[in-house]
Amino acid sequence: MNAVELIRKKRNGESLTSSEIQFLIDSYLKKNIPDYQFSAFLMAVYFKGMNENEQSALTNAMINSGVVVNLKDIIGVKVDKHSTGGVGDKTSLIIAPIAAAAGVKVPMISGRGLGHSGGTLDKLEAIPGFRTNLSLKEYKTVLKKCGAVLIGQTKEIAPADKLIYALRDVTATVESIPLITGSIMSKKMAEGIDGLVLDVKTGSGAFMSKEKDALKLADSLIRTAKSFNKKVIAFITDMNQPLGNYIGNWFEVYESIKVLQGENVPDLLELCLNLAGAMIYLGKKADSVEEGKKISLELIRNGKAFNKFTEIVKLQNGDVSYLYKPEKYPKSKYSEKIYSAKSGYLSSINNYEIGMAALELGAGRKTKEDKIDPKAGIIFYQKIGNQISKNDVIAEVFTDYKHSLNTAVKKISDSLEFSKNKVSKPKLVKRILT
After folding, report:
1. Which of 175, 178, 258, 292 has the most crowded Cβ, counting Cβ within 10 A?
2. Total-model pTM
3. Using one digit for the tens of pLDDT, what is the confidence trace for 335-375?
4. CATH number of the domain that 355 lies in?
5. Is residue 388 part of a domain?
6. Annotated catalytic residue within 82, 123, 188, 375
């Protein structure tokens, strides 16, 4: 087979066979196809899409690029969660320990930041010493000891996805239903789970800005999960504003610590209780999602969820002293407050620009080689529907790069719209699909 011919075929809207897709994935993994050719293939898929057979073939090829983990020797139902990503989305850090504290086994394989959206691995690695690159043997050991483990793709698990994931981030091919589905499901099906909870986001800060597209993605993910005989629940959730108040890798760890210690961050807590409740239900530790939500809240209140988080961090070599004393974490060299230029009700936020502002500050990557500054980020104090007076503080930005302050401040200021009339707060959980 010839890569150029297959790229042309997909560019022209034709369907690829399973063997053709397998050839492209295998060849890229073996470095027989260079980045620039595979980028062209990704762009062709972005514009022309894939049918159900192609989608299944892509997912299978990515799964079969490595091993499928066998967790049968670990007693209990294994359940994971995946979010399609957004701004301030740190739910994995909160719900994994909650579900594990409830007795569910949580083998979680996560990703890095994509475009304006932060990544769970980057957040965890903001904890000094935390290892996300565990071997499969270590992965099983940690899961067996504490009931949860959070790692990235290993060399054994879906190695093709690890390469493709990084390439999509820097070639503007993130927002593609077939590519998102293949990426998510190749990792999830390879990690040895029995059930999966999906958080499919929609809005200005999501990869699927329109709810109809989020529903299409949720349907694609659900169909693929069911084709592998996995139990699945999907939530369609709002991403028209940052989730919680903290954006940036260490900042999001800090806010997660606060929630696990019982602090009420209303939108973040609401979503975490829904997702953790669904995980506990699929893990057969509750008779309904609602009962799972009640169990989740109790595990936060009695301290067991936070204790489980510290156990996970310790087993993955993280320095737990920063969880108990987060104030000792290094601070950025520069910070600046952003004040409201007018009075009124905050009516809308271009949440994509908030994410891009965080990236400018050093909290994300512009190229594959960029290093993230874990200290960099934003504290965003306001929510849609809030009544704001002129000169009220909207947000505060933090960075080691003085030249990036003006750009970030402008992006955030320009992303806001105000109304003289009262504005309704957006509904956080829009739909639940099973």
Report:
1. 292
2. 0.89
3. 999 999 999 999 999 999 999 999 999 998 877 677 899 99
4. 3.90.1170.30
5. yes
6. 82
